[in-house]
Amino acid sequence: MRIHLAVLIAAIAAALACSPHLQAQSSLGSAGAKAQQPGLMSGGIPDLSGIWDADFHGPEGLRLNTWDSSDPFAKHPEQAPMTPWAAQKFKDVRPPFGALQTFDNTNDPVQRFCDPPGVPRIYMYPWELTFIPTPKIVYILYEYTKVWRAIYMDRDHPKDPESSWMGDSVGKYEGDTFVIDTIGFNDKTWLDQTGHPHSDALHVIERFRRLDHDRLELSVTIDDPKAYTKIFSNTKVFRLTSAPMGETLCAYSEMKEFQEKVVDKTQTPPSK
Amino acid sequence: MLKRGIVGRRIVKRILLVVLAAVGSLAMFAGSVMAHHGVAGYDMTKTVTLHGTVAKFDWSNPHVVVYVDAKNEGGEMQHWTIEFAAPVHMVRAGWSKNSMKAGDDIIIETHPSRNGAPVGITSTITFILKTVVNGQALPGRSE
């Protein structure tokens, strides 16, 4: 772990110091970055450099509440193709988003306990991300909670990976697309904002592809035979931004204070 | 002429339907998701305007909060708690920790709590309602 952290820190420092793309963005802003117009490929692989914002404002940035393309905004989250095991778990969730959203005693593990959102739910928040490629590992840094992942480019999954919040990820380049294959999750996170559960058999495939200079498309495919009767997927688009990544840590003390001072007061009847 | 008038009305009707559908869709999206939680606790169809004094401006995660002392229509002083988006998002919208301070005069629009408590939401990632501090309007964003 120490080695990974050291590599990560060195990679971030190297990227920030050497990347002309990042320098251009930080010094020139989006107008300068546009004027630079680098290719979408660099050295034969997709150029994913820069900071990508989960664009919540443009029409393509409309945020998702589920990964099921037939119900992306969770109008009927109960109709997802869940197995009886998953359907039973879903009955107990009190999500703060979607058609079944409630403010009253939500049991969203992220909101209640600052649990890591996991993969792929991390992409449903309105925050930035950036890629730090190194020869053997591509790191993804997420603005939300400052969590990061290591995508191993030089190995397959372990035969029996440890269960973890963000899973074990291996990657490869397919033409203009960066493909990430992840397994080895625990079953503590929600798949999405509406509380759809997943099992420890969850298998997630992410495919990142630049649509053009300013837009990065992410396609997420969910395969979890214990929890769902079919494989499903959806896409969302990120937008290149000049805004530096900020601090959005989920501090339990702050969440608790916000819960007591704001959220609890909106509950019915008012708790205070 | 009559026929053209009917056709014209049909076209207007169709345009109105498209506009209504678009507005409805935007309203659905705007109300469906925000940074940390949904907006189920607030009545997003209502907007109230308060004129009062900033009691405290809490610039912290997960959401910026301002506490406002304002009199209601009956002249009774109420202590409002109003939330905004996260600090990072407010910075990107042009706000800062110095946008207001205790003692400032404030005029602020907010979507009130459904249960009648003096709690409201003035901003999420998608919108910032009108906020005027000491006569100066802070950056907003349409819903």
Provide structural commentary.
The complex is a heterodimer of chains A (272) and B (143). Chain A is an alpha+beta fold and 272 residues long. Chain A is built from five helices and eleven strands, in the order ααβββααββββββββα. Chain A has helices spanning 2-18, 20-36, 84-91, 109-113, 252-263, and strands at residues 41-42, 45-46, 51-53, 128-133, 137-142, 148-152, 168-174, 177-183, 203-210, 215-223, 232-241. In chain A, strand 4 and strand 5 form a beta hairpin. Mean pLDDT of chain A is 83; it is low at 13-37. Chain B is of the alpha+beta class and 143 residues long. Chain B has a domain at 48-137: Nucleic acid-binding proteins (OB fold (Dihydrolipoamide Acetyltransferase, E2P)). Chain B is 26% helix and 29% strand. Chain B has two helices and seven strands, in the order H-E-E-E-H-E-E-E-E. The chains are: A alpha+beta (272), B alpha+beta (143).
Unreliable stretches of chain B, pLDDT < 50, 5 or more residues? 1-8, 15-35
Summed over residues and divided by their number, the pLDDT of chain B gives a mean of 81
Largest interface: A-B, 43 and 34 residues
Please state roughly what percent of the residues of chain A sit in beta strands, choosing from under 5%, 5-15%, 15-25%, 25-35%, 35-45% or over 45%: 15-25%
Shape of chain A: globular
State the fourth-level CATH superfamily of the domain at 48-137 in chain B.
Nucleic acid-binding proteins
Tell me what portion of residues of chain B adopts beta-strand conformation.
Answer: 25-35%
Helix % of chain B is 25-40%
Distance between the termini of chain A: 45 Å
Indicate the structural class of chain A.
Answer: alpha+beta
| Secondary-structure element pattern of chain B, one letter each | HEEEHEEEE
Mind telling me the CATH class of the domain at 48-137 in chain B? Answer: Mainly Beta
Structural Rg of chain A: 19 Å
Largest sheet of chain A: 9 strands, mixed, barrel
Class derived from helix and strand content of chain B: alpha+beta
